Amino acid sequence: MKRTLIFVFLVFFSVKTFASYILIPMDAEMQRNHLKAYGITYWVLEKQLKVKWLLNYRGGSFLMPDTEDIQRECQIRGVSFEVISDSKTESILEEINSPSQNMEAVILEKAPKIAVYTPYGKQPWDDAVTMVLTYAEIPYETVYDKEVLNDGLLAFDWLHLHHEDFTGQFGKFYGAYKSAAWYIQEKKEAEALATKLGYSKVSQEKLDVALKIRDYVIGGGFMFAMCSAADSFDIALSAEGIDICEPMFDGDGSDANYQSKIDYNKTFAFTDFKLERNPSVYEFSTIDMTQKRMGIVTRSVDYFSLMDFSAKWDPIPTMLCQNHTALVKGFMGQTTAFTREEIKSNVLVLGENKTNGEAKYIHGIKGKGFFTFYGGHDPEDYQHRVGDSKTELDLHPTSPGYRLILNNVLFPAARKKKQKT
User: Fold this and answer.
1) Helices in 240-323 by DSSP H: which ranges?
2) Nearest to 38 by CA among 20, 24, 58, 22
3) N or C: which end of the chain has fewer CB within 10 A?
4) Which of 108, 140, 175 is the last residue before a domain boundary?
5) pLDDT of 195-233, one tens digit each?
6) What are phi and psi for residue 152, nearest 5 degrees?
7) Which domain holds residue 54?
8) Among candidates 310, 329, 309, 308, which has minimal Cα distance to 400?
9) Is 159 helix (H, G, I), strand (E, B) or coil?
10) How many domains does the chain have?
11) Looking at residue 404, which CATH number applies to its domain?
């Protein structure tokens, strides 16, 4: 009996001593579902447990306490994990802390509250972020103009901007789709919403929405925008008080010489861009590289490379670039990528296509907050068109392009305290 008790004690002691942590590897070889791994990490944070994000260690792995609940959840969601001992954990952290290693361990403390800015009744092809949040099982709430104008963003840590047009030109779809039933209906709904909210023009209402989002970021929020939401947001800010819309959009003519009145000091990321005046051209400005890459960047060479930052000195851009590959396949959108020469000098380029000298993925600071702009519409659908079926992420569980979105989702969790005023 005594020997049995000693044996049980030794087994229990060895398990507690040598199996104290769960490592979720994020390298290409050992993780079978990178996207759901972010969901597990978020789920652990929701339980008020801390997680260490091991930057540049095995693709940006996650280290968390070893509990039966976490192991079970990983098994249910199909996420690869390793149970490691105290001594192994200490060895990993020592390696990461070494000055000779470009690695860092960042503590994630709190599950950020997420808002997705998206119109009511959106279609499946509308938003890659909504799709990946759903797939990763990360909870979010949707907001739109009414909530934003009523200061509803103050309840959230992280905001994603839907594939959107903040200029009031209805996505510049006029040339190709002005007779399409869906375009006519969406235009009618946008005008009705603007009227209901007390505006005579959609462009005026969208400007006030953009200004509220600007204030949210300046106050300490994190804003992530993809595709046309990125450049149309900056264009709207730069054109505050200027009518840049032609009659088919708002019922009256645009201001004369409006290009000369654009104020680049008001933008987040872009400067010195020229607006596209032709209402039939599916383009907002020279910020976008879609037309400039024709005949130069073909699908076979359309990749962008992630920049290499110092994990210890530049943990934020390092965090946002975590991946199991440094070379990510490109994808198109209304705004496919950004013209390097029109990006402000204080904005970091996180990913670029060197073939054509274009920026795909950029990040900056505004006031107390942060913003990230990501070109393109859907990382796993090269040239997504209106009406196409949605991407099935079960077919792309290790997508490097979608991982970049989820890096941004977890980023606010690393902030020590709320910076919003």
Assistant:
1) 247-250, 315-320
2) 24
3) N
4) 108
5) 999 999 999 999 999 999 999 999 999 999 999 999 999
6) -70, -15
7) 2-108
8) 329
9) strand
10) 2
11) 3.40.50.880
